[in-house]
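CHAT domain-containing protein
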Amino acid sequence: MAGARSYHSLVKRMLPLLAAAWLSIAWQAPDSTTWKKYRDSNQLTEWIYAQIQYSGLSPAAKAAQLKQATINAWRAPASAEEIQAWLDLLINQGYTLLQSGDIISSTDAYQQAFEWGRQHASITDAGLVLEYLLKPLGNNYTRLGDYEQALFIHRIALEFARELGDRQAMAATYSNLANTAANMGQLQQSLQYCREGTLLADKHSATYGLLLSEQADACQQLQQYAAAKQRIQQSILILRQQPASNQEAAHWLFMAYQQAGDIYLATPATAAQYYQRAAAMPESKRALRKREQARLFLRMGKLQLLLQQPQKALVWLDSCASVLLPGKTIRQITPRDIYGEYILLDLLFTAGTVHQSLQEPVTALSLYRLCFETERELRHQYISASAKEAAISDSRDRYETAIALAWRCWQATRQPFYQQAILQLMENSKSQLLWEEMQQQTHYAGNDSLHKRIRLLEQAQLYYRREALQSGKADSMLQQREQRVAWDLATLRKKINAIPGADTDRLSADSMLRLLPPGQLIRSFFTGNHALYSVEMDRNGIRYADSTAIDRNAVINFRQQYFESGPQAMINNPKAYYNAAYQLYTQIFAGHPLQTGYSYLLMPDGVLSTLPVEALVTTPSYSSAIGKWPFVVKQATVSYAYSLRTWWLQMRAPANTEGFSGFFISQQQAGLSHLQGAEKEKEGIMPAINDGHWYVNEQAGSSTFKQALMQSAIVHISTHAFLKKDSIDAPHIMLYDAPFYLFELGGLPQHPAMVVLSACKTGDGRMVTGEGVQSMAHAFMAGGTPAVVAASWNVNDATAPLLMQQFYQQLSKQRNAAAALQEAKLSWLNDPRVTDLNKLPYYWAALSFQGNTGAIILRSTRHYWYWWLLLLLIPAFAAWHKLKN
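Predicted structure tokens:
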């Protein structure tokens, strides 16, 4: 179903029959004898339409009946009429589910219809597909918040409308595009879609009124309130003038009244009048859908909350709940009732806020948890990565509200329940997408047809991405194919997520903390808009929870001024750096200083994700001797993880156990600077490695690199790396012959235990709210690598070889890789041959360790000689003892 040209206008006679079914024209339900007659005479088309036209059921029951019909069919459709009838059956199922309020099941049904139409494009009616399939499917994705997929469908619909020459359909599609763009925050684009639609629509039509309401929405978000009020009034006027028989126009009027209420919220009395006009519309004048009715009740509840009338708000919220979950009030909702629906999510959070205002914190926290569970279920329905990221970002403020409540209750009562709630909420807010990606590495390991299909599509996706990049994105056909494969792949992954036992998201913190060795502590953070929350844990559980003020701009400026912009600011004024570093240390750690001799696993959040903690100083007394500064690196071993759950997976991740492969590219391709330190790095590392594989310049090719990732325990990379943050479309590592794109990691069946990225900015990248830094290190961890060493800014060409030499020497002596990296940095600071200037943190603090500190054991050649000598001495001693006796 890649484009409109694959559809032909056939089977027109089906449309009146389908429309009759949708308008619920009364039909005497055929008895079982009639259905049996169709079956016995092998009349599949008649049997299908008898199922479609069965009336007298509720939308939910009707949807269930149609679903059962797809199961009870005695054979697959064969003729053109049967194939068209089957499409009508799937579309009707989607529509009845939409009427019942089950948006997710409705989307799944429409998507099945979409796939069926795609498989039988030559005999599918284009007008039917446009009006009754593409339009509702695109709108469903918008309702779910999966806006990338909504755009994908709406653009196909626009192509259909253009080829059909249907100006009204084109105008309606522009309205859908405008709505989707506005939801994505692309407000100017939304207004442009509206302008294009109004040029096509009849000025007195309901579609024109709909376009005006979309303009009002964009203007409201742009805070152009006068324009928003003008447009919504014009919209209401036009929609009120539509014929009473136009149910679609009546529905749009119902929604316009609610939108007007939102626009006039600054004047609550006026807002209430518009909401009440919507509520007063008789059902006979509009196509009532449960979802929109629930949204109206929710708006009324929010208005009462705004007016500080919590009890009245609860009445409206209970009405909303009874629509979304028949027979349920807010307090009766349980985790078993939860499903993916944005209105339910909003309802639960609003209800939690109401109960918080009523001084009922336990109920409020329970509702907040249900809200986050709903958000998670909803996010699992999304196909595009951008929609998932937007959902994570959108939930951020809600998590902060819940954490702040749990913190206040902990302060007031000291009940462990609230302390555990803080940790649980913090953990659930973090790196949820990384957690899901890491889980996929185990869930997709099956050998059944579904897993094989996924792996095949993954390979196809990699091919299309590489080809599109190499063609400079000039080949639109490649891009369309890659998008099509991405759609199919995401659809199959949703099926994997639905398999019982595939979800291990509900792990207890206690079970994860038992993996901690003695002397290691975890400190997890949540950086909110109003406070920084921290929880410290050891293997026995929570040691403390705390909250403090944090100047986020100070963290951002510190990072930019002293690290991202190069060493000059630090060189020019080391005292200013020292003072700034101490101030940040006191903000973050003063309440609970890092204890000397401990190993800390830090789980930063927000702006803290970019902060080099080891480069901070712990006392206010400045000294001109930089090597003597009290850096955090001297006080404690520091490693990093994204969350407890991701760290737990890294601790359990299977990986290669033997072999070292090093890639050192000093002679770069044209346009890239040569890296003279790469070969020095190789020479420094070699003495600490036994039986390593060394690839220099032309030997360090892309195919060799992929083999090394699948066969070696340690893969070391010294070359250029490029990130999306650097305006690169596809982040990649520059090998001698070709780039290695990070998306290629997803296709590897085996992974190294540790990857060392001795390249610039491999630990830096795009910041995603609630997810952390999307760096190269992040990509390797998502792909299944338990441990990564990466650089957060430009590594110094002279410093890196010596640090790496010390790192591998230390790694051959101890199990803790983070401690080995710490010792390498201390060796640099204590080396009298290193000038004080080069002991500034810019030169040594870029490299950090993330993940499982015990993922790899490295023994040097010297240690192996000891073992060989021992093996030789044992039989020699036995022979001597025998001769002596």
